Predict the structure of Mss4-like protein.
Amino acid sequence: MASDVTALSNHTDAHHTGKCLCGQISYEITGQPIFIALCHCVNCKKWTGTGSGWYAFFNKEQVHFTQGQDTLSTYTDTDTFRGTTLLRNFCPTCGSNLTAVLTSRHELTGVTAGTIEGDICEVYKPQIEVYCKDRPKWLPELGMKQFDITPNVSRA
Ligand SMILES: [Zn+2]
Ligand SMILES: [Zn+2]
């Protein structure tokens, strides 16, 4: 499959942790994300309550819950633009959105980048914007590669 986005190189020594707002659910990540995206789709607007979702995508083996996984709640989002079911996982206590997994690409885990600890705004700068058909008109150009819907991404 032709790739529209070059994946980040996988430095397996990188290590990050993350947690929800109340701290009930925490996770750790090993290695670099495959890609980082802003998603402007209508469903992510609803899920995040903001203009866009900010996600870092990893192979599922890179992401491990370290606390509270048994309390993680899931909304099964079947009403997506592409018709592919998306499992949206969140903390039932504080409402933080934590991970999203497409059932058709369940080898990938999308982590809500805002729940990652540390200097995330520098480390997890998005490379691409997806679902730009729903991009907020007031949002200035960010200089990232833009896609009407979603691109093909593969790890080099
Ligand atoms: Zn919480
Ligand atoms: Zn979205």
Remarks:
- Residues 42-48 form the longest helix (7 residues).
